[in-house]
Design brief:
alpha+beta; Pdz3 Domain; 27 strands; six-stranded antiparallel barrel; Thrombin, subunit H; flat; N-terminal domain of MutM-like DNA repair proteins; single chain
């Protein structure tokens, strides 16, 4: 997430709101400073991690003796410490749950005695049950750069919308009229003594624009992780929607003035929708010609917001206008689908080293780390199949994640930019485990690697020599383990 253009920030001005002295005193006791040692993944050397960097942020106490913060404050952290307000102590904390898409994470102080002592004097903050009013005044608490003490700042709620967060995750987002600074990420934003959301980002190219994750999204996240895992909100996996604002297309479809909604122009045979259906309502809520619905106190957001709100048993009910007549449909929704490339979440990339080559199963993260536009220009399947579902059970792409590890066995060869393995000894590779099984089962004199990428030459190695030099190459490059656990289990079986 640190590659995102959005600059994570905090609040700038510092003055308490009139009439808020007592609530402010209570809130201050529940806001902590977080220190995290970031060790991000190294996609070109996946057996290692990036050099450590220390980041600071803000968190606050919630129910269950837990601390809530932003995911980007503690993602890929080898160590996390919590500093209580007005204290020099740093208490070791563990990551309980994280959702990088919605940018939320939950921590728990590690030692029982420290946890009990801390929560005995630092009460949980209450999450607001409804959205804040537009124009309402809010206070933000946190530890932005420029000082060591807690900062309390004030702003105005200027907009609420349904927006794209990170990693194909959508949700409500509150915009506030305030300048932001680094370090305040993860802090509570309060209205009338209740938390209306969590500070998470700002725009460095604009003034007085900051964003807050609403309490509603926080509550959904906390409910989701109650079973020990994070699944995310359900989605409608369908493409091909356009607004019904244009008068010509409305006349062509024969729509009356009171028939409003979103036009479906896709061709998914697995959906009961048909091309040129007008989605008129979802869960009984009317959709306007811009694809918006009304929620709360007159707030207009994308109709997609109501998909998880109205979903029951993996389906949603919509009304469509088809050839001028209303039709009731039930559409399937899910938290995920069987995508070819998934995001890593907070995990590190897997790998296997064989001779001079480093192989990794392709995750969605590789698309960004390896420059998606360049991969697309090379017609790499990493880019061309980024939106695909798996063609068969267990399918994954296998990429050569780096240049050759130095060794004379590579004489005359070169690795093109991040090529994807197509076959070994003429057998099509289904996934990295399958590739290792092919090599293990081979008694051929040579190993022949072919690739999907047109710029990558075919590589032929003496099989026995390639296996023999692997240990030498691992030692020369200070690689302690030949591969990730999943692949070592296959290789050593």
């Amino acid at each position: 997430m640190r590659w995102m253009v959005v600059l994570v920030l905090g609040w700038l001005a510092a003055f308490p709101a009139a009439g808020q002295d007592e609530p402010a005193a209570d809130v201050r006791q529940s806001v902590v400073k977080i220190y995290a040692t970031y060790r991000g993944p190294d996609f070109e050397a996946p057996w290692s991690k990036l050099p450590p960097e220390e980041y600071t942020g803000t968190g606050f106490v919630i129910s269950g003796n837990r601390i809530l913060t932003n995911a980007h404050v503690v993602e890929y952290s080898s160590q996390i410490f919590v500093q209580p307000p007005q204290s020099a102590d740093r208490l070791r904390a563990d990551l309980v749950a994280i959702a990088r898409g919605i940018d939320l994470a939950v921590l728990k102080i590690r030692r029982d005695n420290e946890r009990e002592s801390f929560h005995g004097t630092h009460p949980e903050l209450r999450l607001r049950s409804e959205l804040p009013r537009i124009g309402g005044t809010v206070q933000a608490y946190g530890y932005p750069l420029g000082g060591e003490q807690l900062s309390i700042t004030e702003g105005v709620v200027s907009r609420i919308e349904y927006a794209d967060y990170y990693f194909d995750t959508y949700g409500l987002r509150i915009q506030v009229d305030a300048a932001l600074n680094p370090g305040n990420s993860g802090g509570p934003v309060v209205m009338d003594g209740e938390v209306i959301g969590v500070t998470f980002s700002g725009i460095d190219q604009a003034e007085n624009i900051g964003y807050v994750i609403p309490a509603e999204e926080v509550r959904v996240f906390l409910d989701d992780i109650a079973d020990g895992s994070y699944d995310g909100r359900v989605k409608l996996f369908a493409e091909g929607f356009q607004t019904a604002e244009n008068e010509a297309v409305r006349a062509w479809l024969g729509l009356s003035d009171d028939q409003t909604g979103l036009i479906y122009t896709g061709d998914d045979e697995d959906l009961p929708l048909k091309r040129w259906d007008l989605i008129d309502s979802i869960g009984g809520v009317d959709i306007d010609n811009a694809g918006l619905v009304t929620i709360g106190d007159g707030v207009r957001v994308s109709w997609a917001y109501l998909i998880p709100q109205t979903a029951t048993d993996g389906t949603i009910k919509v009304t469509v206008v088809r050839k001028g007549e209303p039709v009731e449909l039930t559409l399937p929704v899910a938290t995920s689908r069987d995508d070819l490339m998934l995001y890593l979440g907070n995990d590190y990339p897997e790998y296997f080293v064989l001779g001079p080559m480093v192989f990794s199963p392709v995750a969605r993260d590789h698309l960004f780390e390896f420059y998606a536009a360049y991969l697309a220009m090379l017609r790499s399947p990493i880019a061309l199949r980024a939106e695909d579902e798996k063609a068969f059970e267990g399918e994954e792409l296998v990429v050569v994640a780096s240049d050759f590890l130095p060794h004379p066995i590579t004489k005359g060869y070169a690795i093109a930019y991040r090529p994807t393995v197509k076959s070994v000894n003429g057998e099509r590779v289904k996934n990295l485990s399958h590739m290792l099984e092919i090599i293990k089962a081979s008694d051929d004199e040579f190993l022949v690697f072919e690739f999907y990428d047109k710029d990558q030459e075919t590589l032929v190695f003496d099989r026995e020599e390639m296996l023999e030099v692997t240990e030498e190459i691992l030692e020369d490059n200070s690689i302690r383990r030949q591969g990730s656990d999943r692949f070592m289990a296959v290789w050593e079986d």
